[in-house]
Structure formats: C-alpha cells, structure tokens
TrEMBL record, chains A, B:
PROSITE patterns: HTH_ICLR, ICLR_ED. This is IclR family transcriptional regulator. Keywords: DNA-binding, Transcription, Transcription regulation. Residues 72-249 form the IclR-ED domain. It comes from the Bacteria. Pfam families: HTH_IclR, IclR_C. SUPFAM superfamilies: GAF domain-like, Winged helix' DNA-binding domain.
Length: 254, 254
DNA sequence: GGTGACCCTTTCACTGAGCGGAAGCAGCCT
DNA sequence: AGGCTGCTTCCGCTCAGTGAAAGGGTCACC
C-alpha cells in the first residue's frame, strides 16, 4: 500500500483476499467489524476495501449491514478445475446409490490433513450430518476420512495421529487404535465409523482409485450399520468401480 | 494505484477482480497474456497481480503456464447465500424427478436478461445439453428461460425481445411469436422448447413460486416431447409444489 | 434522558506501494 | 538468421492507499 501503513510489505490484493477468505463454513455473513477483525485490518481500511469488493461484485451488502459472498464469485468458483471433472464423472453413480438407499452420499478428497467434501446428496431420512460441500473435517472421525488416511503418505498419517481431536464420546483418539483401523481399511477395502463425528450417524466408505492411486473416497451416512453393512459396502464398491472406469477412460485427469 | 498509471481512478482491487472475472464458462484456463488482455491490463501489471493472486491462493498456475481458479476460491464461492437455500430445498425434489424419469433436471433463476443455472442433474441418456451449473444462457431459447421471462418485469421482456439471438435453426427469433408463447406459458403454467437451444434436445419447465412471486424455474431436458408431455408436466408441477411448500415453510428466503 | 457499548462512516496529510515502458529472455516457427 | 509470440525483470516516477482521529447513528440497560 502506500503511506503510513502499520504492516509494510503487505499488498492491497493480499488484504482483499484476506477479506474474502474471512468467510467460512460457520461465518457466511459478516459485519464490517467482524470482517476487519478476521482479516486483521484496521476498520477504516476494511471499510474502503470492502466497499470496492462490493462495487466489483465480489461481495454483497445485505440490508442489515451484513456482507455475504456474491453470486458472481460463486460462478467463478465453479470454474475451479480439479474437482469439476471428478464430480461430474461421479455424479451419476452417486445418484444411483442415493436412489437405491435414500441415505446421504458423499464424495470427498484429502486436502492436507483434512477431508474436503466435493459433493453431497442429502438423504431424506433424519440422520444428522456434519459435512457440507466445500467444508473440511478431520480425517480420523469420518468414513471417507479414514479411507483417505489409510492411503495417505506417512507424514500425513503421523501428523494426523499427533493431534486426534474429539467430536463425540465415540471418537477414537488413541493413535494405536486408529493405526489398527487403517490396517483393516487397507485389507478389507472399506472403512466405517460409528457415531464418531456426529451422534446418531454411522458411515461406510470406499476408495476411488485410478492408476493405482487413491484419488477420492465415496461414502454413505446411515442411522445404523447393524442391519445391512454388507449390502452398503457392495453398493459402494460397485459405484466406485464405475467411477474408476470413467476416470480411466478419460486418461489422467486435471 | 500509484505512480504513472495509464488509467487513473482504477484501483488495485478492481484490477484484481477483473483478473478473476476474466475466467468464464468457455475460458477456464488462461495464459498470462490472455488474462492481461481480457482484464484490460498491461502485461507487466497483470504479471505482478496474478503472481499475488497465486500467492494468496485465489489462482493456481498449471505446469503448462496456464492459470486456473484455485480450490480455495471454489470453497468461498460455495458460501454465497441466495442460491444455497433454494438449491438445498430443491435438491430432494430434483432427485425424485431424476429418479423417476432419468432425464436431465435443471434448477434456474433469472439474472438480468439471462437464465442462470443453479443446479443440474445429468441424465444418463445421450441428450445433448448446453447448460452447466453457474452458466448463463439466453432467456428465449430454453424452457426454464421462457418460464422466467413469462414472469419477468416488462423492461426485461422488451430488452430480451429486442435482441433474440439464434442458437439453432429452430430458435424462435420473432418477438411476436415469443410474446404469444409467453402468454401461453402464463395461461398453461408450463413452457416447452423444441431443439431451440441444442439440436436433439427438447425441454419442459414450470415456475417455482413463493409469496405470489416466481423466484425460479424447474425444467427437464428430453429427446422428444411427443410421447409424454403431460406426464412430465405433472411430475414437474408436483415437484415445484413441493419446493414451494418448503420455501414457504421457512419464511421469506435469505 | 443519560450513559455506555456497539456499530458504521468520513476526513485528511503523509508516503511507499504500485505502475508500466523499455529491455531482456526463451521457445518456436519459417 | 530473422521474425514472432509469450513470459519475466528492471527501475524511477508519483498518486493510490493508509489509518488515527473524529463524527454519527442505534440500540439497551439503568
């Protein structure tokens, strides 16, 4: 910036991005002062920059004075490539799974030490689900997370096992037990959770592979695993095979 | 900005946004010079700003030297509110439609004089479809577009009728005929197209209303309307009613 | 109706961040 | 070798950007 800045070296653009990235899953609407606080900017500076972001169509100001991400940013965001290909290929298979079981169906990839949810089909049933598309959750407490962790590089595994957060009373937080479970995931080809992320929700998940690498995971959330664990695993594996075939058909993805 | 700019009055942030918005449906990957050209910036300036956008996690540089929207921007884009509520409410009904018919199902709103596609479930059948989520198409050549146009303010209608672009040999480009069709849409409660946007694709669409206003449109794309037009219209209307009920249940939307 | 807490908005003098022409570099044609 | 296109770096000029300070508006609670 110019003149008497308190943090020389930082640029206008980086501050603008800090304002945009101040929004997250649990902060979809922010007031000016919240924005300034979260982006680490003085209030008048935030005021001016936010004004420009609104003028430029990146943010919208609600009547109440709260700011939200604008539709136009949603549109450009959808142009992000990596996920798009995988999501479009997986969509029909996810639809089949959803139609057959009426459960919540998830497509996720690993982003560092977190699961990133790429797609979700919500079940009609009243199973509580923590994930939302674009949201990140810990690897060790979700079905898709365990699948991805089981096939992650060693440094990610040790990093994750180093800080196992607790979400419910059933969350597994002993590294040794997780290692044991990961071994079983690799052997059996699927992972399960029982109320480890959300009470009242269990999950099953399988890997999606291409070229010998695990690139994503496909999972489902159900109220209980007692009855039809096998049926769900088979359905997931068939769907995952279908996605793999589509992926391989198109050559190495973007 | 500072110093000897060629366009005084424009700000760094607005230039940064111009770079982001240089991406669109048909330009998902851009080289530095394309970005500079599309954003209207001198090349060295674009070079510097794009570098900052990459450092800030808004863009990613591919090995080939092409830039694409980064995953992080996809994530914040998903936080845009207006659409999210409607999409989530409509999703289960769209799934039902899709399961029952196996056709492509669309959810769209009007954005100025264009249809903006909020959601799409792709049919397995090989019907060519032009729309993608986040994409904009003309109002007069699509089923959902005609529905939205039929319930749009007068100025939008006259504006749209003033420049009726042609997409295929079947596109209706005479204002009088479109007016006639819009009248019929309002009377019958549904709109149709026959290969007007894409050859080999027909469509049916119905409005989604809340509080007496048409806020969106629900549509389907099929190879032909001959056989089961009535069946499709009924299915769509049932689904649209369901969405309306959900909308009304939650009070005035976000 | 006073007081305090919270927002948001505007002002303004100082200055270094931003600018972009020019030049250099690398690849790829003919 | 010469021309073309596209990327990167340099560097001196200068105005866009900065943020403390002050102003205004709206609640709620005493």
């Amino acid at each position: 910036m110019a003149g008497n800045t308190s943090t020389p070296g930082s640029t206008v653009l980086s501050r603008g991005l800090a304002l945009l990235f101040a929004f997250d899953d649990t902060h979809r609407r922010l007031t000016l002062s919240e924005l300034a606080r979260r982006a680490g900017l003085p209030l008048p500076t935030a005021h001016r920059l936010v004004g420009e972001l609104v003028a430029g169509g990146a943010l919208v100001r609600r009547p109440g004075g709260q700011y939200v991400i604008a539709r136009r940013l949603w549109q450009v965001g959808l142009l992000a490539p990596a996920e798009t290909g995988l999501r479009e290929l997986a969509a029909p298979f996810m639809n089949d799974l959803h139609a057959a079981t009426r459960a919540t169906v998830h497509l996720a990839v690993r982003e560092q030490s977190h699961v990133l949810y790429l797609e979700r089909l919500s079940g009609r049933a009243s199973v509580p689900v923590a994930s939302a598309v674009g949201a990140r959750l810990p690897l060790h407490a979700t079905g898709v997370g365990k699948v991805l962790l089981a096939h992650a590089p060693d440094d990610v595994v040790t990093d994750t096992l180093g800080r196992l957060s607790r979400a419910t009373a059933h969350t597994v937080t002993q590294p040794a037990r997780i290692r044991e479970q990961l071994e079983r995931v690799r052997r059996d080809g699927y992972a399960t959770t029982v109320e480890e992320m959300t009470l009242g929700a269990c999950s099953v998940a399988v890997p999606i592979t291409t070229g010998g690498r695990v690139v994503a995971a496909l999972g489902m959330v159900v109220p209980s695993l007692e009855r039809d664990r096998t049926r769900l695993v088979v359905a997931l594996q068939v769907a995952a095979q279908g996605v793999r075939r589509s992926l391989d058909g198109l050559g190495p993805g973007p």
